[in-house]
Write a structure and sequence with these properties.
320 residues, alpha/beta, Spore Coat Polysaccharide Biosynthesis Protein SpsA, Chain A, three-stranded mixed β-sheet, binds 2-acetamido-2-deoxy-beta-D-glucopyranose, EC 2.4.1.-
């Protein structure tokens, strides 16, 4: 090696060394400013209206911060880890609804992750939204996912000392193709018993008797005491397989549970098209619309309920 090359080399190393020191000094000076920049970034992300569930969803330890007199409802939407777009869509739908006198937590529920990319993507979602419940199970249809959902919650929620009792007065299982109007749901629940309640859209469709036979999978709800019963009882354990929502009705019948029942028909119904005995026209007195299988049906429903009417005017956008 030629001597001047060697000289150049050591000069280069020395200047690198000083440059790194310079960077360290700069970084420590700017640390405080950078922190505040991060905070600003967070603020910029939580622009949802103050009382919206979006903001609540993004806070950790959410139930602990609710006031003790508030009605607390959990809606678990059973879905699959890979359904990222669906979750994103539903977060918009529920994150833009604001509520008075109740807190409704909408969470996405699935079984163990199975792919490497899920471990990153789902973890990021949880860091950002904290609205995912991963149960100890393998994804399945009609093999007890519903049972796992309801019966796992007591263990998952009760050992946290900050959480009030019951953590939720009511727990719902909801479908990802149903649109729930959270304020209407909460208002319909407020006068009802908080013990031994089974609530939903009774099947068969023309029936109005909530004791015959069971509540439709579009979305049904039970009081917290029924979860604790399900967790301990042998009745569901002996009869786990089968169409989940019908089997759920059988457990309650066999266990003499759900003595308080509420049929929310026709505030809950299937989307009017195509008409069947389970459908109803969109109307103001709505808690849930089910079978929103296409974007078109979602849009028609969201338009009917004027969900974008409260969009703030701004110079930054124009939506005719
Ligand atoms: C949020 O809720 C509180 C208490 O329920 C109420 O006083 C306040 O006006 C609400 N804020 C908005 C922006 O709706
Ligand atoms: C789910 O994952 C947990 C933790 O990784 C593991 O202990 C458990 O056995 C898994 N359960 C099933 C049913 O695969
Ligand atoms: C709380 O945790 C302990 C130990 O992990 C467990 O034995 C107990 O059953 C849990 N209690 C509830 C109510 O989940
Ligand atoms: C939506 O807005 C229109 C026009 O303001 C109104 O007539 C209609 O009743 C609203 N629909 C609902 C479901 O509130």
């Amino acid at each position: 090696m030629k001597p001047n090359r060697l000289l150049d080399g050591s000069r280069f190393i020395v200047s690198c060394f000083f440059f790194i020191i310079f960077l360290c000094v700069l970084a420590s000076i700017n640390e405080i400013r950078f922190d505040s920049l991060m905070k600003f970034g967070q603020c910029a992300f939580s622009q949802a209206p103050q009382n919206s569930s979006a903001e609540r969803l993004s806070q950790t330890n959410t139930i602990a911060s609710s006031s003790p007199s508030e009605l607390r409802i959990l809606i678990g939407i059973l879905t699959l880890p890979d359904h990222y777009h669906k979750r994103h869509f539903l977060r918009m739908i529920y994150g833009t609804q604001s509520l008075v006198g109740a807190r409704v937590d909408v969470k996405f529920v699935f079984c163990n992750l199975t792919k490497e990319d899920q471990k990153v993507l789902v973890a990021l979602e949880i860091m950002r939204y904290d609205d995912i419940i991963i149960m100890n199970c393998k994804e399945n249809m009609n093999k007890g996912k519903t049972y796992t959902y309801f019966s796992s919650l007591p263990e998952m929620l009760l050992n946290d000392t900050n959480v009030p009792y019951p953590p939720y007065h009511y727990v719902m299982k909801g479908d990802d193709d149903a649109y729930f109007r959270l304020q209407s749901l909460a208002d319909s629940l407020r006068p009802l018993p908080r013990q031994d309640l089974y609530y939903g859209y009774v099947i068969p469709c023309p029936s109005m008797d909530p004791f015959v036979h069971y509540m439709s999978g579009m979305g049904y709800l039970v009081s917290w005491d029924i979860l604790e019963w399900l967790k301990d009882s042998d009745i569901p354990k002996k009869h786990l397989e089968g169409p989940e929502d019908r089997v759920f009705g059988d457990w309650l019948r066999d266990g003499h549970r759900g003595r308080n029942r509420y049929n929310a028909k026709w505030s809950m119904y299937n989307f009017p098209e195509p008409p069947t005995r389970c459908t109803h026209e969109l109307w103001p007195d709505t808690i849930a619309v089910h079978l929103l299988k296409t974007q078109e049906k979602w849009i028609q429903t969201l338009n009917y309920f004027n969900v974008t009417k409260s969009l703030k005017p701004s110079k930054l956008y124009h939506i005719p």
